[in-house]
Design a protein that fits this description.
alpha+beta; Cytidine Deaminase, domain 2; 3 domains; two-stranded antiparallel ribbon; 9 strands; 36% helix; globular; A distinct subfamily of CDD/CDA-like deaminases protein; Cytidine_deaminase-like; catalytic activity; Deaminase_LmjF365940
Length: 339
């Protein structure tokens, strides 16, 4: 820094940073990628070299001890308590999104770890299913057919303030017979043979949907379907996900029997892909926690690219935090809706 600026210029440079709210190394570390790029664009050219030198503080070698890297962030105090498998920055970056969301660390440590992962773009990839490549009567074809048929015939506008223009959201929750499922994320789990026996029989009129390829659970899926309603606001409204969960609860299906959630929207302005609201997200996280406890697996969220679907994007419930990310919005615009 001394070589890049004279004493007078250095004072002006740091005064500029102070005006931008960047007063400490910690302030520099907590800037997201977009905020950092925006700040860099505002730095006058004569200070470009100095800013580049300062920005090196954000570069974290993957072999660097994670505890040392975290100490550069505000509100992190020594000693930093981390799980035994998290030794380096590289270990943090190699975690799956699901494993990361399950870390048992202090809140500010979790926040700093999240910023580090976002900086390296670890969660920028999203998985797509191309419905054109799906054969008839496969799991995803059946789920799509079920939703499209249902929302056209079972979504009377009287349940949405008698207004045909109100958005219709349809959700399918899939489930398995927990008395027969002994699947486990890390292979067959013999402990699951001692699970609580569920006495409630599965009604015969709930059709079999098939099994999604690549899932940690390969048991036959069945599904319940529901739409949203808005009799009054705010207390008289219920999301389709909550109504579907109510159906499952009424069938006697335990929370750990849930496997997938499909969400589809229909409105004047294209609403898809459609994430669950914050309340539904919280409920689904609790369901996922039970699935994890019993089987070690996650519940997966599937969203459609458009009202008339061509593609499905999916991610696990613990990854729902991606909803507000610029990366996801870019993915929707450039990949999901591209033909």
């Amino acid at each position: 820094m001394d070589n890049a600026l004279s004493g007078k210029e250095a004072g002006a440079f740091f005064e500029f940073l102070d005006e931008q709210g960047v007063r400490t190394v910690g302030d520099m570390q907590v800037l997201g990628n977009a905020a950092f790029d925006s700040l860099a664009a505002r730095v006058p050219p004569r200070w470009a070299e100095a800013f580049l030198t300062l920005s090196v503080l954000r570069d974290l070698d993957t072999k660097m001890l994670l505890s040392n890297a975290l100490m550069a962030f505000p509100r992190i105090e020594a000693p930093v308590r981390l799980p035994g498998f998290l030794n380096t920055v590289g270990d943090l970056l190699n975690l799956t999104a699901s494993a990361f969301m399950q870390l048992q660390v202090a809140p500010f440590v979790m926040n700093a770890c999240s910023l580090i992962r976002a900086r390296y773009g670890t969660d920028e990839t999203f998985s797509i299913i191309d419905l054109k490549k799906e054969q008839p009567n496969t799991f995803f074809s059946n789920a799509t057919r079920m939703i499209q048929s249902f929302c056209r015939t079972h979504a009377h506008c009287s349940w949405r303030k008698h207004d045909p223009s109100r958005p219709v959201v349809t959700s399918v929750l899939t489930f398995v017979d927990v008395n027969k499922c002994h699947c486990h994320l890390n292979g067959d789990n013999p402990e699951n043979t001692h699970e609580e026996h569920i006495d409630a029989p599965i009604p015969a009129d709930i059709e079999e949907m098939g099994t999604p390829s690549g899932s940690w659970c390969q048991c036959m899926r069945r599904g319940v379907i529901a739409v949203n309603y808005e009799l009054s606001t705010p207390s008289g409204s219920r999301c389709s996900e909550q109504n579907a969960m109510g159906k499952l609860a009424s069938l006697g299906v335990p929370t750990w029997g849930v496997r997938e959630v499909f969400v589809h929207g229909r409105a004047a302005k294209e609403p898809n892909p459609l994430f669950p609201c914050g309340v539904c997200e919280n409920m689904l996280r609790r369901v996922t926690k039970d699935v994890l406890a019993h089987y070690g697996g996650d519940v997966t969220l599937y969203m459609f690219d458009a009202t008339t679907p061509r593609k499905i994007v999916f991610l696990t419930i613990p990854e729902i935090s991606n909803r507000d990310g610029a990366n996801f919005k870019k993915f929707v615009a450039e990949d999901l809706r591209s033909r």
